[in-house]
Write a structure and sequence with these properties.
By secondary structure, the chain is an alpha/beta fold. The chain has helices spanning 27-41, 54-60, 96-101, 121-131, 148-157, 166-175, 179-200, 209-222, 248-251, 288-306, 314-327; strands spanning 5-6, 47-50, 81-84, 91-95, 111-115, 139-142, 162-165, 233-234, 260-265, 269-270, 273-274, 280-283, 339-341, 348-352, 365-368, 371-372, 380-381, 384-387, 394-395, 403-406.
């Protein structure tokens, strides 16, 4: 296999054309989604509740904000979310602070009820429940992101209630992406690649990991992302840079001097959809042993992409990609599943893993992200979002696939 290198003087900025949307989502699409969900809900529950989450965003267009590390609480905020039945709603209940400072007081797609700071959340919810004319022992579907306080209050108001997962009812609708959703993901991928291109122009030996992470996050926003779709991560390793998992405050301080492989893992947010992308950059002169590792990872991804065909299975795809790395002698260093479904959440079921028998269907989107990660020497990874197709997968991002070397 020919190994391509990119050893150039990077331009001062990088431009990548962002594809336009095929169609705009709006009230009509959200009404269609809501109707399809309510039809499914009628078989399993009398009432559904979704907190502000990807589920609610998908159904109604009520947006999420940039997440916080710690909880930000308001009086009575256990009621915050949408309440609906198979035939009624949604009623969007919001504490005043969320409605006013979150800009949601005029949300479309739902009837908005605002709880004053001094209001009685239980009485407001009691009014909803009465208006829905629920049976004496109602079945309640709650979104998986629902807080325990909400469930506790509901149990108190409806002591004979039983609970099921509303997310599981909705999931089949979210798993198959429309052409419009795939187009949005493609645009999110283009923003991600454009950000990466500009990050490459800034890379120099001796940067800290925090320098690079900060540059990635800045370039994502500069190119049109709400922010990073998850915490931007680097998995760096070399003889003088031991690989450390889950120790951000320690690793961010490290300076990166040759030789070291730098493994990127990040993505953009666009219109509520999340991208996930990975590439490998090398500081210094890569030797033959690292070049072989890089080739193996790229060959593994190609095999995984080819296996993402309609009527195949998630396990088939994982097996096809994993077999390449196992046969190359590095099986134990492929430490995770091949990938995961993706859309309005970064990680969505189903997963590309040996234990997942899910049959693949057109409209599914998965990450394909093989890696060889080693603790005391060089590592490599690659990641793209891939659309399942009749003859194999189609990556939504295809740039920067050569070995990127910063000399």
């Amino acid at each position: 296999m020919l190994l391509l290198y990119s050893r150039v003087n990077w331009p001062t900025s990088y431009t990548l054309t962002i594809p336009t949307m095929n169609a705009a989502r709006g009230p009509v699409e959200h009404r269609r989604r809501l109707s399809a969900f309510q039809e499914r809900l009628a078989d399993v529950a009398d009432l559904a509740f979704f907190p502000r989450s990807a589920d609610l965003h998908y159904l109604t267009g009520v947006p999420r904000d940039v997440p916080n590390f710690g909880a930000v609480l308001h009086p009575g905020d256990w009621l915050e979310g949408a309440w609906l039945t198979p035939t009624d709603g949604p009623l969007l209940a919001l504490p005043r602070m969320t409605a006013e400072f979150g800009g949601l007081a005029e949300s479309s797609g739902a009837t908005v009820h605002v709880l004053p700071d001094h209001g009685d959340a239980r009485e407001m919810v009691r009014g909803f429940l009465t208006s829905f004319s629920l049976p004496e022992a109602p079945r309640i579907a709650i979104g998986d992101a629902t807080r325990g306080a909400t469930v506790s209050e509901l149990q108190s108001l409806l002591p004979r209630a039983t609970f099921v997962s509303a997310t599981e009812v909705l999931r089949p609708l979210r798993t198959i992406k429309s052409e419009d959703e795939t187009a949005t993901m493609r645009r999110a991928g283009a923003i991600t690649e454009a950000a990466f291109g500009d990050v490459l122009t800034k890379l120099v030996h001796g940067m800290s990991e925090l320098d690079i992470v900060s540059e990635v996050d800045y370039q994502l926003r500069r190119h049109g992302s709400l922010g990073p779709s998850f915490t931007t991560s680097l998995y760096n390793s070399g003889p003088n840079h031991p690989l450390l998992f889950g120790q951000r405050e320690a690793t961010w301080k490290r300076t990166l001097t040759p030789p070291v492989s730098i493994l990127f893992d990040f993505g953009a947010i666009l219109d509520g959809y999340c991208y996930d992308f990975g590439r490998t950059v090398f500081f210094g002169e890569p030797g033959e042993e690292f070049e072989a590792i890089f080739r193996l990872v790229m060959a593994s991804q190609a095999a995984g992409i080819a296996a993402l065909r309609v009527e195949g299975t998630a396990a088939d795809a994982d097996g096809a990609a994993r077999r390449v790395i196992v046969e190359g002698g590095h099986g134990p260093a492929f430490r995770h599943r091949l990938g995961h479904a993706i859309g309005m959440d970064v990680h969505e079921p189903p997963f590309l893993t040996a234990g997942d028998p899910t049959v693949l269907r057109e409209g599914m989107l998965f990450t394909v992200e093989p890696s060889i990660t080693r603790f005391d020497t060089f590592s490599a990874r690659v990641e793209d979002v891939v659309a399942v197709g009749p003859d194999g997968g189609t990556p939504l991002t295809t740039g920067f696939r050569e070995l990127l070397v910063i000399e």
